[in-house]
Amino acid sequence: MGNKDSLKHFTLLYAEDDKAIQKEMLEYFSSYFKEVFTADDGNEALELYKQHKPDVLILDIYMPHLTGIELTKILRENDYKTKIVLITAHSNDSLLLESINIDVNYYLIKPATLKKVKDMLNKISIDLLRSSEKIIRFDENIYFNQTNQKLFNKNIEIKLSKKELSLLELFIINRNKDITIENIMSHCWSDIFIEISLDSVKSLVSNLRKKLPKNTIVNVYGVGYILKNS
To answer: Which SUPFAM superfamilies match (predicted)?
Structure first.
């Protein structure tokens, strides 16, 4: 099951015209997501979506200017990946019935208890992790596609040597774990029966560092290195 930590790399856009409810839920959602953007109406939500491209949208079905249904229809013209949650007061709402054919991922029926919200967030976290498990993001621009084993910056490929790729995969498999010099030697030079110098390892790490965001690979004194999650 998902948990708070599993959503810490994702962003949320929350649209609710009731300021009291919005304030209360903002605090709750902020404990789950990396960043939460709030909107008071459908038009503002659309503008924030265009600016930030959040991973999840939680929309009140009744909003000024654009309803949750109308906004979802607009977004689904080009975006089928973002998870969308509609909040409504009634399970038989006519607008809710209209939403069946526009690919809404989840529904939240008011009154939304914290348990209901938590259960919904758990489901979202599982879905997001499943859909993103082949993509490793280092920041908003740089990511590694595990399917084709390529590194990208703003969708432009960053060329990796064979050993740089091997080292990156070693770090990814062992994220947030110490990697020793010996680990790197045996993993990246396992096909060559020669003595590997410490300088060769340092040079390889240095070259890979230049292709990743600053402080992604960190020295661990007396041990080796560690790949830090963004």
So the answer is: C-terminal effector domain of the bipartite response regulators, CheY-like
